[in-house]
Amino acid sequence: MAIKIDIQKTVIPVQIGELEYTVDVSDEAVKRVREGYRHIKEEVEAMQMGVGYEEDFNRTKEVLAQSFNLILGEDAFEGLYNQTPSITLLAKYLIIIVENLNNEFEKVGLTQTQADKAKKYLKKK
Q1: Residues 6+ apart with CB under 8 A from 40
Q2: Under a CB-based contact definition with an 8 Å cutoff, are residues 85 and 59 in contact?
Q3: Local structure of residue 26 (DSSP, 8 states)
Q4: CA distance 104 to 120
Q5: Over the stretch 54-73, which tens digit does the pLDDT of each residue have?
Q6: How far is CA 101 from CA 1, 12, 15, 85, 98, in A?
Q7: pLDDT tens digits for range 71-85
Q8: Which residues, in sequence order, are bridge partners of residue 16?
Q9: What residue ranges in the chain does DSSP mark as E strands?
């Protein structure tokens, strides 16, 4: 008897309005996103120090651009901002994307707990 395992793709399609993207969830892409996330987190923490409206607006826009480009690919933010020229709405889109990606990861068993279990298993061998 043969064991048959269906192959799963390492991309997740994302559609925002008329724009379509794919999120790469391969090991290397996830590693790159995690490293980029650390930088973005530092930017957000720096923003919370309190600056003027104009500087805060520009930094928020830049952080959103970095986030969208990191997750959806280069120049994603430009297309999204042309489609929806509001950083408030784009921030909402980003939250929705991140929440849904987390849900997709959980569906296929890609939670941090699962990763930790796999590492422990592999270390025993």
Answers
A1: 63, 66, 67, 70
A2: no
A3: S
A4: 23
A5: 777 888 899 999 999 999 99
A6: 36, 8, 13, 24, 5
A7: 999 999 999 999 999
A8: 19
A9: 11-16, 19-24
Q: How far apart are CA 3 and CA 12, in angstroms?
A: 26
Contact 40, 73 (CB under 8 A): no
Cβ atoms within 10 Å, residue 47: 15
Instruction: Determine the angle formed by the axes of helices 53-72 and 76-83, rounding to 10 degrees.
Output: 120
C-alpha–C-alpha distance, residues 41 and 18, integer Å: 29
Tokens 């849900």 correspond to what residue?
103
Is the entire prediction scored with pTM above 0.90? no
- Around Cβ 70, how many Cβ atoms within 10 Å? 20
Residue in 1, 118, 21, 23 with CA at minimum distance from that of residue 10: 23
Can you tell me the distance from the alpha carbon of 108 to that of 93, in angstroms, rounded to the nearest whole number?
23
Question: What is each CA distance from 47 to 11, 39, 63, 104, in whole angstroms?
Answer: 32, 13, 10, 30
Quote the Cα angle for 111-17-70, to 5°: 45
